[in-house]
């Protein structure tokens, strides 16, 4: 799982328009996957560190909590209904978002698109 | 260079005792089909169908921007008002446009909140229409998000709204049309999407009215996309089941804005829906 988040980190480094969208976002986000914790620390639209928990000392701004199977489906090129968006995961009971929701709201497009950077490409969907 | 067959004009009608300057577009000839856009958007959602010669050869498609949306201005004094759409004001607006344009029993095609009001009109004013195509339409669902996030000074409602409703677009939608669809939400005036959603997520009066819809006089066909998180296929099935004689089609590869997000994928479903509506000769009989 941590390799996937590191892939997202490097993909973001290669995606200037997302860095521009996230230029005001410098926060740590917790992604909890089946109880395992991953902390993504953003600095001005880039991910500067990906660390695996558990950690009681790492403050985070907001969290997405889901499971590995749901994320695997989320990262398909054309996910099934409900698995196609983080709010879909929430709606079908496979995800939960908590913490400072205003921070998420302010950076929603950026954060959602960063998470999809690990999505399989269209040609692999067939 | 291309010039599209869509033409746009304005009409002024009275709603709630005050004038509303309303922008409308039309294309085609034949039986009138009045098209209602979703919350937080405008007539541009219908442009693909309005530019479709195969459809406009025998159908006169008309779409209008609700007040506060697109090129229709908000009413005078809006700067001190909180925009909150109501079922009553929405119905009055649609009927005023029909009267103002002199439409004779049009087919009503509405999506999302437009589908909701189409079903309200089917129940309360069915005789003024010849049939209903209710897209992403359901009896009622409470909000699965806090609608106040869409209108606050410390977050951009348009950018946030677009980022949220992208959850309702199918991954099968072409990228260009996904973003054209989202652009309308990005452009929406402050508080407008929230005010639309207030109507959509708080008024459950349709539930009790659904069994009174007479589909022998005015057929009701409901269309729903499998990727719609707001009006799910389950919501649409429940709604169709409550309307005696209503028909339903589930569009497996589409989301909440089918005519806008994936015009090619939606076309056959819309053509099928039009086929279920009375033909002009039958209407005249």
From TrEMBL, chain A:
Protein's name according to its UniProt entry: SCP2 domain-containing protein
Organism, scientific name: Thetidibacter halocola
Upper taxonomic lineage: Bacteria, Pseudomonadati, Pseudomonadota, Alphaproteobacteria, Rhodobacterales
Automatic annotation (TrEMBL), chain B:
The organism's taxonomic lineage, starting at the top: Bacteria, Pseudomonadati, Pseudomonadota, Alphaproteobacteria, Rhodobacterales
Record protein name field: Alpha/beta hydrolase
Gene Ontology MF, one: hydrolase activity
Gene3D superfamilies xref list: alpha/beta hydrolase
Domain of life: Bacteria
Any Pfam family: Abhydrolase_6
Domain AB hydrolase-1: 33-266
This protein's record includes keyword Hydrolase: yes
InterPro entries, per database record: AB_hydrolase_1 (IPR000073), AB_hydrolase_fold (IPR029058), AB_hydrolase_sf (IPR050266)
Record's keyword annotation contains Acetylation: no
């Amino acid at each position: 799982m941590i390799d996937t988040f590191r892939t997202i980190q490097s993909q973001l480094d290669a995606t200037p328009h997302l860095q521009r969208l996230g230029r005001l976002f410098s926060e740590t986000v917790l992604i909890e996957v089946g109880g395992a914790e991953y902390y993504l620390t953003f600095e001005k639209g880039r991910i500067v560190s990906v660390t695996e928990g558990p950690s009681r000392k790492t403050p985070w701004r907001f969290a997405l909590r889901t499971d590995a199977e749901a994320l695997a489906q989320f990262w398909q090129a054309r996910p099934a209904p409900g698995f196609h968006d983080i709010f879909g995961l929430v709606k079908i009971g496979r995800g939960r978002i908590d913490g400072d929701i205003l921070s998420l709201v302010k950076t929603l497009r950026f954060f959602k698109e960063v998470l999809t950077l690990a999505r399989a490409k269209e040609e692999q969907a067939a | 260079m291309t010039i599209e067959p869509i033409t746009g004009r304005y009409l002024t009608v009275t709603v709630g005792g005050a004038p509303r300057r309303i922008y409308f577009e039309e294309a085609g000839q034949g039986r009138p089909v009045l098209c209602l856009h979703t919350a937080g958007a405008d007539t541009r959602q219908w442009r693909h169908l309005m530019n479709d010669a195969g459809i406009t050869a025998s159908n006169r498609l008309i779409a209008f921007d609700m007040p506060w949306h697109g090129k229709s201005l908000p009413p005078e004094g809006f700067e001190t008002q909180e925009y909150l759409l109501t079922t009553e004001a929405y119905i009055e607006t649609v009927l005023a446009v029909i009267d103002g344009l002199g439409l004779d029993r049009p087919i009503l095609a509405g999506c999302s909140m437009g589908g909701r009001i189409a079903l309200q009109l089917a129940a309360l004013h069915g005789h003024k229409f010849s049939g209903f195509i209710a897209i992403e339409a359901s009896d009622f669902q409470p909000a699965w998000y806090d609608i106040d996030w869409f209108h606050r000074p410390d977050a951009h409602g348009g950018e946030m709204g677009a980022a949220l409703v992208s959850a309702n677009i199918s991954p099968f939608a072409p990228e260009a049309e996904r973003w054209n669809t989202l652009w309308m939400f990005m452009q929406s005036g402050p508080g407008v999407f929230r005010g639309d959603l207030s109507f959509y997520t708080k008024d459950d009066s349709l539930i009790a009215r659904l069994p009174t819809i007479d589909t022998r006089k005015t057929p009701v066909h409901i269309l729903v996309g499998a990727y719609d998180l707001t009006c799910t296929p389950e919501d649409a099935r429940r709604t169709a089941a409550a309307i005696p004689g209503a028909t339903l089609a589930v569009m497996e590869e589409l989301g909440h804005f089918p005519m806008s997000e994936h015009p090619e994928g939606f076309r056959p479903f819309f053509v099928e829906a039009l086929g279920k509506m009375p033909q002009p000769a039958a209407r005249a009989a």
